[in-house]
Amino acid sequence: MQLPALIFDLDGTLLDSSPDLALAVNSLLDELGYPPLSVEKVTEFIGDGTPKLAERSLIDSGAIDSPDEPRFDDYFQRLLVFYEENLANKTTIFPGVREFLEDHKEHPMAVVTNKPDQFTRPVLEAFKLADYFSFIAGGDRYAKRKPDPYPVEQAMASLGVRPEQTVMIGDGDTDILAGNAAGATTVAVLFGNRSPEELKSLNPDYTITAFSQLTTIIGNLKNPSS
Q: What integer pLDDT is reported at residue 199 of this predicted model?
């Protein structure tokens, strides 16, 4: 019998990285001479990858009008520098995550995130979480990123599981859309970066408000035959 494979998003699902992402954004804005954005505002911009975070933050602050402006690439590279300096400064692990991973380490597990590859493994290693996952993919690993199902499909292929043996867990619309398109069971995390109403409208198979509830969901899933 095959234990369900568990594929996790990262930001807003395993880690609350909003404070450090906001710190990076505001370091850039300060350098450019613009006022800071609130953590809540930056959190609204998280989920579609760092380029989108930069684009939305810079447009909202008035630093640029469009990502097509030549200076956007320079600003984006500076944002990456600021974030690399603050990967695990104010970031925290959501309650229950470490305990869940330890209790379910016999399951095939992966991380599929839209965070750039260069930050994904280092931040997991900073919190001693990387060893739980046999497959880790950042948003620039492939030409397609979530909500396209391709990265999730690559994770399933690496783990050696079929869609009906797979659970996709995430806090963003990109996670639920990618998981649904890949044929996986989807679990929406309602304590992350997106509103519960937005996530529920996507019709995930399950929702959780605490990581402990994921244990019950996994336990209730039928283990499909190999």
A: 93
